[in-house]
């Protein structure tokens, strides 16, 4: 194991949900961690869980000074930054587009897109002199197809895919790989709150996601963390500019497969068969 032995990672939004699951998975594989999150109590507890190989810093990803400080902490405490995971996010503005307030829209875009831009910017700042590193960002199936998330969320997650490709095209010359992961609905406190109104109701949340999964299973943070681990590791050394959908086939299995269930034949013009 130890696929990240000796590596240093900054993970935003790592106090809970996918971020915490990723921190645990990276730690198991040998990485040292900077837990960057607005949730001070939960973030401090997460860092304590990982002992001497972790530090917590309070970080609002919409503030450049906070993101820069998280990157600088990794370098100051562990000597380098090898992996940046831009994970922090919210569901954000919901409701009809004709009734969405500009303020709610701007707040959502700031967290989901500006936060990713700032993570990329400051990771590149310290990675380029070393000519190595990996930058990973969280998009969503709502960043691949329309209708799977609120308007602002969908716009931001589509933009993450585009920014990933754009940054990858520049940073490849510096030996830096830039990729994204696009999860389908994943069981976390944030999605539990959105689905059931109760941040702790994982059971009903999992059942809701299972009902819409082509594979008939729900995703948990470990499923997304494993994808991020692959992209962070040297196993993905030839992969950059890509968005990996971790969605049980949801973005490639639209429809109910009705044509696959019929008797084999050929449908011809004017309704003729055979």
User: Helix segment count?
Assistant: 8
Number of DSSP strand runs: 7
The assigned CATH architecture is 3-Layer(aba) Sandwich
Any idea of the CATH topology? Rossmann fold
Order of SSEs: EHEHEHEHEHEHHHE
Word description of this protein:
The structure is a single chain. With 274 residues, this protein is an alpha/beta fold. The chain has a single domain, classed as 3-Layer(aba) Sandwich (Rossmann fold), CATH 3.40.50. It is 42% helix and 14% strand. The protein contains 8 helices and 7 strands, in the order E-H-E-H-E-H-E-H-E-H-E-H-H-H-E. The chain has helices at residues 17-28, 40-50, 64-78, 102-127, 151-171, 189-196, 202-211, 221-232; strands at 8-12, 32-37, 54-58, 83-86, 133-138, 176-183, 243-246. It has a 7-stranded parallel β-sheet, sandwiched between helices. Helix 3 runs parallel beside helix 4 (102-127) and helix 6 (189-196) crosses helix 7 (202-211). The radius of gyration is 20 Å and the shape is globular. The mean pLDDT is 93.
Record keyword descriptors for this entry.
274 residues, alpha/beta, Rossmann fold, seven-stranded parallel beta sheet, globular
Blueprint of the fold:
Blueprint: E1 8-12, H1 17-28, E2 32-37, H2 40-50, E3 54-58, H3 64-78, E4 83-86, H4 102-127, E5 133-138, H5 151-171, E6 176-183, H6 189-196, H7 202-211, H8 221-232, E7 243-246
Parallel strand pairs: 1-2, 1-4, 2-3, 4-5, 5-6, 6-7
Helix pairs in contact: 1-8, 3-4, 4-5, 6-7
């Amino acid at each position: 194991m130890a696929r990240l032995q000796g590596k240093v990672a900054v993970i935003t939004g790592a106090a809970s949900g996918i971020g915490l699951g990723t921190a645990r998975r990276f730690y198991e594989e040998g990485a040292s961690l900077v837990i960057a999150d607005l949730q001070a109590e939960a973030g401090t507890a997460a860092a304590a869980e990982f002992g001497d190989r972790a530090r917590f810093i309070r970080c609002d990803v919409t503030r450049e000074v906070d993101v820069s400080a998280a990157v600088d902490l990794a370098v100051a405490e562990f000597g380098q930054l090898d992996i940046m995971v831009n994970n922090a996010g919210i569901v954000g503005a919901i409701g009809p587009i004709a009734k969405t307030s500009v303020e709610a829209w701007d707040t959502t875009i700031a967290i989901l897109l500006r936060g990713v831009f700032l993570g990329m910017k400051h990771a590149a700042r310290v990675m380029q002199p070393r000519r190595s590193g990996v930058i990973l960002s969280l998009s969503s199936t709502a960043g691949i197809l329309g209708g799977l998330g609120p308007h602002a969320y969908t716009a931001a997650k589509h933009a993450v895919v585009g920014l990933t490709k754009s940054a990858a095209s520049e940073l490849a010359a510096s030996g830096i790989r830039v990729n994204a992961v696009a999860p389908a609905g994943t069981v976390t406190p944030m999605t539990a709150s959105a689905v059931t109104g109760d941040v702790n109701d994982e059971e009903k949340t999992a059942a809701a996601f299972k009902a819409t999964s082509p594979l008939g299973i729900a995703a948990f943070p470990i499923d997304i963390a494993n994808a991020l681990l692959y992209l962070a590791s040297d196993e993905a050394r030839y992969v950059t500019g890509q968005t990996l959908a971790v969605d049980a086939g949801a973005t490639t299995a639209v429809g109910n497969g009705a044509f696959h269930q019929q008797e084999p034949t050929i449908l011809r013009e004017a309704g003729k068969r055979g």
